[in-house]
Write a structure and sequence with these properties.
Bound molecules: (3S,4R)-3-hydroxy-2-oxopiperidin-4-yl beta-D-xylopyranoside
Helix content: 40-55%
Distance between the termini: 35 Å
Largest sheet: 8 strands, parallel, barrel
Shape: globular
């Protein structure tokens, strides 16, 4: 489609979506035309419904790729440093913190009016060798507390939210309460999750404290078991008075996965909400590794997953925002982690590698436009 046709097509889509959600009158009455909305980034579509939209990325891409940085600021209302706040980057040695890259990201976000989400304080992966190889610290519990306090206090008041604990569950590890095998479980014991949330609440009382988890999305047995284990963990934490405030649902989707059941997802979200928790769709993308090579077919299948998933998720009022794990196919972890067997570049995100809108972008914008207002 030529750019001008494409623009008209988009305007039509956005206009139709707004009319379909009862915003038609407001749209006609306002001086703001559907054309300007189509030109706006996804953040505006989200914010119009009281939601937020953001993406994860790395500091080098923002520093070295001006076109990407400009697009990022136009599209996103929130930034997640993709690796800069992980132990492996922050902790070159047991007695040292290196905040150079994370400071740069927080400054970039502040300068451009973006919220920042911290990812992540406690995770079994991306740990430095000094920690994994010789347990690094004589007192791992104190080491964990010290890490959370030092990092959170540095950015206190500046963070929208923190993934305090990431991926603590793995039912196939067959441990009590479906806890995942990890250094933290091993060295601190099963209460490390509660300890992390209590420490976090004191270190930065303003940030929303999130438990972030993967594989919660499909109507398949492993995801069903993971959903149950997650509800049980959150419920135990709430009963114990642990200050967890939200669930982050990673939502790394697969476009070949046709066992998505919107009702199963909605029921799960409603149960999380009933525990008094907010919900963030925290790492959304759609892997296209097993789709045919044809770009139109692929892009439509990826967009269809975005549409179906977000229609179900945004229906739940406790869902406050959506974050994609990357913004443009130019930079995505899936190039490395879920490459295509035919070696063609992967296309999992809202913008293509030239920073142009794809059907996935239209799908996300329309899902926001159709979402009940918060
Ligand atoms: C990934 C990053 O995108 C990669 O660049 C990095 O090398 C490995 O981690 N779930 C998470 C994220 O919580 O931290 C992961 O990010 C993707 C899966």
């Amino acid at each position: 489609m030529a750019p001008s046709d494409r623009r008209e097509f988009l305007q039509g889509l956005v206009g139709a979506a707004l009319l379909g959600t009862g915003c038609g009158k407001a749209l006609q009455a306002s001086t703001r035309s559907s054309a300007s909305l189509a030109e706006d980034g996804l953040r505006r579509h989200a914010e119009a419904r009281g939601l937020f939209y953001g993406a994860a990325t790395g500091n080098r891409r923002l520093k070295e790729d001006k076109a990407f940085a400009d697009t990022f600021v136009r599209e996103c209302g929130l930034l997640v440093p993709e690796s800069e706040l992980k132990w492996q980057v922050l902790r070159p040695a047991a007695d040292r913190f290196d905040f150079a890259n994370s400071d740069w990201m927080v400054d970039f976000a502040t300068q451009h009016g973006l919220l920042v989400r911290g990812h992540t304080l406690v995770w079994s992966q991306r740990l430095p060798a000094w920690l994994t190889e010789n347990a690094g610290t004589a007192n791992p519990e104190q080491g964990l507390i010290n890490h959370i306090q030092t990092v959170m206090r540095r950015y206190a008041g500046k963070m929208h939210s923190w993934d305090v604990v990431n991926e603590a569950l793995e039912p196939t590890d067959h441990l009590p309460n479906s806890l995942r095998k990890s250094l933290w479980l091993d060295k601190v014991g099963p209460d490390y999750i509660d300890l992390a949330f209590r420490t976090a609440a004191q270190a930065d009382p303003k940030a929303l404290l999130v438990y972030n988890e993967n594989h919660l999305d499909y109507d398949v047995r492993p995801d069903e078991v993971k959903r149950q284990a997650t509800l049980e963990l959150l419920s135990r934490l709430r009963t114990a008075g642990s200050p967890v405030q939200a669930l982050g649902i990673q939502a790394h989707l697969r476009s070949d996965e046709n066992r998505f059941d919107p009702k199963k997802l909605r029921d799960f979200l409603a149960q999380v909400a009933k525990l008094g928790l907010k919900i963030i769709i925290s790492e959304l993308d759609v892997a296209d590794a097993s789709l045919p090579a044809d770009i139109t077919t692929r892009d439509q299948a990826v967009a269809a997953q975005y549409s179906a998933y977000l229609a179900a998720a945004l229906d739940e009022p406790a869902v406050t925002g959506v974050i994609t794990w990357g913004l443009s196919d130019r930079y995505t972890w899936l190039s490395e982690y879920r490459p295509r067997p035919d070696k063609l570049p992967v296309r999992p995100l809202p913008l293509d590698a030239d920073l142009k809108h794809k059907p996935a972008w239209d799908a996300v914008a329309k899902a926001f436009d159709a979402a009940p207002k918060r």
